[in-house]
Design brief:
- By secondary structure, the chain is α+β, with helices and mostly antiparallel strands.
- The protein contains five helices and 17 strands.
- The strands form three sheets. Strands 7, 8, 9, 10, 11, 12, 13, 14, 15, 16 and 17 form an eleven-stranded mixed sheet that branches.
- The chain is elongated.
- This is RNA pseudouridylate synthase.
- GO terms for molecular function: catalytic activity, acting on RNA; pseudouridine synthase activity; RNA binding.
- Keywords: Isomerase.
Length: 277
Amino acid sequence: MKYIKYEVHENTSVRQFLKAKNFSKKSIEDILKTGYILNGKKQRKSLNLKKSDELKIIIEDERVDYEPKKGGINIVYEDDNSLVISKEANITVNSKNQISLSNYIANYFIDSGQESKIRLVNRLDMDTSGLMLIAKNKYSHAYYQKQLEENTMKKKYLAVVEGMLDIDSLYENKFSYNEKKKNYEPSDKGKISRTYFKSIRINCDFSIIECEILTGRTHQIRASLTDLGHPIWGDKLYGSDKNLDRFLLHSYRLEFTSFYNEENIKLNDYPKFIGFL
């Protein structure tokens, strides 16, 4: 069993203290129901706090919920509540029917003595590489999910697209799933997708585009670029004729406020394929 320890600096209540620390409403209710430690004693309701009180939030040990498999993971950032890795292409993030990235993370948690479930904050397609955030407990997971919902977590990608695309603007459209084609297509009945695209390099055969996603829609970058007439290199599902072993899309920048320490974390991870273009 682990604890998240806080020192109280002003008079308040447990509920208000946790709310000020950006715990989700559900997390606060869970803490008040299951109990917390105040000055060494377990309590189960929102008591008043005074300056110099010690408040501990209980983090129960958990069993890793994926079968551990040996495999390399590239750790970019880690603290007691968070893990950021750089995912390789050609591996799923959490498929139950084949070896996935979650199996490798489970093995890392066990080897490093961390008793936690695998909680993926953001997910990447099998062929997409780059930065992924994993929460180590349910409270940090809810904290990061709130940042996603409020669009305060910044996620940027680099894509290599076919043809010359000169763009520096917000692109919006509605997309819905085509069951027959297994992809997303423009549709008035679909959900709105917002992505800011900015050209980084423009050549005759290809362009490198920075993509900042402002909504969390499945395949939104891939579908949007194809709708613009410039599919991602190697993305055959969305119209590319390039014969590659992956499509060239990489999550290269991630910015978020860390759980507990509330630090502004800014991470960059440039893709290997940029150096070959």
